[in-house]
């Protein structure tokens, strides 16, 4: 957060305060939509659309800055909305994402007497009876809650996460204001065609409400503990359900060396290479085996705990689990535990979704635009009123020209080719009827953070080397399914081959009889349109490349094709980076 930005603390959910929050939010929304209509519909007819378009990006950046000011002032839902929008690389230009990317969720701590009263109300006992020690000053504070260090009567050191008073009422008012602004925005047809606002707001609201439910976070922490129960190197903090409610969460205090504290790791004798390798391996398991992953792996949520040899022996952590450090010493590095905290944001990959991912990659491998479009539509990549047939045509053209090319090859594509594509499919690129499902965004965000963290820990980190043994471990049974899929495709091709002579004969007959009809959609070439669409073309192309490579890598690894799968996974990270920095 910028130093000049200061947020306010909630002092009680009285009706006057709630009405004031709603008025400020609705006034911002009214000004935003009014300005949009004034510039795009009124002034465009008076001063000309070219002049309006010339200043559009500057106006959008100013709008993002005003929203940032509102979010910092009100906190809570509005900061969460800014963070959410900063992940929507499929909808917003990079300039807007940059304005919102570092919006921080931090406010002053709540009054200690109020928080103590809330704890006693929730847990039905005085704080002095619940805890042997309780530090009244929070160690961390955010818009929705804050954390305190404490000691249970048993002597266990814990972190007590407490939700701020009246957050249910505040969130209800904020979400109601957001939904009202969404209804107003839907009256603007170009925006309604471009974005499924109802879906996005519902998706965002569901995430906010889930974050308010500390029981759900407790469930997620316990699920991670079960998933990694057989891995002695991963530590998940213990939860204390007897001291936890929807507004209170008590967890084991496991804070150790921050994963980005490189000096601390070196002082403890911990191999940074080993930490990078273990972190990468845990995410492979979370995504491809468990289908349940920590979606917010930033440095504040990851710690490393050094172990003495006796404790490592008790846990069954052998010397081979912690190879020598970067210095090249022949002595084994200090054994360690990798610790995850904060399970409020998690991603899921359901079996049904994995099935669609597999269908997606099969269609890609067969260069079947109709099958790929259908799979992408079932996965939620298109808006409800999207012209699926037109999208299918665009994908078919992309297959014909770019299928099989590497990411480096795509970077070297001649500009005139992209211009030709933009002109031919300008109707799609001007409306962009696409949206990336939230879980895919969560996954892409996690992969991007993970990639940067692993490389920072070990500049020579080789993801190809690490992914190959993992692919062999999880491939059991996958090959048979792949063979079955291939056989089905062979039968499909055989049927098409049998039908082809008859179809050719019918086509020739229609041609000779003058009955053949050809439909074409032609578009005017326009340099100004190209400038307007250039950014959208680039983001669309790279978003398509990222999604295809990520899905391809996932399924190839599962189906025991490690080398090509590894290439796809690494390339997907590069494609995602290209989207982010574009």
Which stretches of 5+ consecutive residues score pLDDT under 50? 1-12, 320-330, 405-411, 474-484, 493-500, 519-532
Strand content: 5-15%
Q: Give a quick account of the main beta sheet: strands, pairing sense, barrel closure.
A: 5 strands, antiparallel
Number of domains: 4
The percent of residues in helical segments reads 55-70%
User: Termini separation (Å)?
Assistant: 23 Å
**Mean model confidence by pLDDT:** 74
- SS-derived structural category: alpha+beta
Rg is 27 Å
Which descriptor suits the 3D outline?
globular
Number of helical regions: 25
Number of strands: 11
Short description:
The protein is of the alpha+beta class and 582 residues long. The chain is built from 25 helices and 11 strands. Helix 16 crosses helix 17 (388-402).
Q: What topology does this entry show?
A:
Blueprint: H1 15-46, H2 49-54, H3 56-74, H4 77-85, H5 94-101, H6 112-123, H7 127-130, E1 131-134, E2 140-141, E3 145-152, E4 157-163, H8 167-185, H9 189-194, H10 197-212, H11 214-227, E5 234-235, E6 248-252, E7 257-258, H12 262-267, H13 272-290, E8 292-294, E9 302-306, H14 309-315, E10 336-340, E11 346-348, H15 351-365, H16 369-378, H17 388-402, H18 407-411, H19 415-424, H20 426-431, H21 438-457, H22 463-474, H23 478-512, H24 527-558, H25 562-581
Helix pairs in contact: 1-3, 1-8, 3-4, 3-5, 8-10, 13-21, 13-22, 15-16, 15-24, 16-17, 19-24, 22-25, 24-25
